[in-house]
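input
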Amino acid sequence: MALQRCGPDETALTIDDSTIAGAEACLIARRLGHEVTLFLNPHQIITQTPYFFTILNLAIDQLAERARRTNPKVSWRAPQYVALRQQARSRLISLADGARDSELRRSLSAWDLEMPRAAPEHHPIDLSMLTKLVAAGVQIGNHGWSHIDIASLSEDSLCDDITRARQWLRDATGQAVDAYAVPFGLATPPAAVLQQLNGPCLLVDASRPVGELAPGLINRTDITDGIQEWAPSIYPGDPRRRCLFRHAGRRTTLSVILGAIAIGLVLTLLTLLWKAWLDGR
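output
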């Protein structure tokens, strides 16, 4: 179901971030006949720079690989690396673009690391891919200008961030781009900002119920580890072509997106069957 037409008992598929991996997942969904909304950050498309959390994750991986030379059992999931990632991430998420880049480079220097090279699927889409997505029927949503933590912004700065991104995406796609997905999915925009939005505002906060929390404010469900383990059995595909990526310290694959699509269809079918049973009583 398209996000704009999604009712309270229906399921919509959404994907966040301006990455090639996300774009390819959207194209797969469209080829399978599913509606999908992709929430984009214009800054990454314009500058063609990977997200800071991608570079951070790769840097932590390099630190773990360095430690593995003396201790083969070391993992990037080890507590010290999880804590280091969280500490660095908490410093970076609230910084504006230039300050964030400087802080990231400072951290890399302190860790004696070169700038990691992101895999192709982690790189941002370009304008030609954006055109391809629109032509395929992918709905484009607003994910803010550059994926900054909105909790660090004043009300006016947040409005400017949303408006600037929306206008750029409207000009680039010809779509309305009224839906807004909060970067990192946790902070709720102030009421005055929500009232200025022309479409729904989406979160992805596991600590809150899934569904409409308030008029126009919707909390989504994320791809869980359980779906991640289940998805390959639905769509085994070619392991060499699976698009492995990590977000916020978690691994997943493009096949997970297909698993999520399948689960959405199952939930929709169960809802329809439940309604039919109630109507028949």
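quick obs: The two ends are 27 Å apart (CA to CA).
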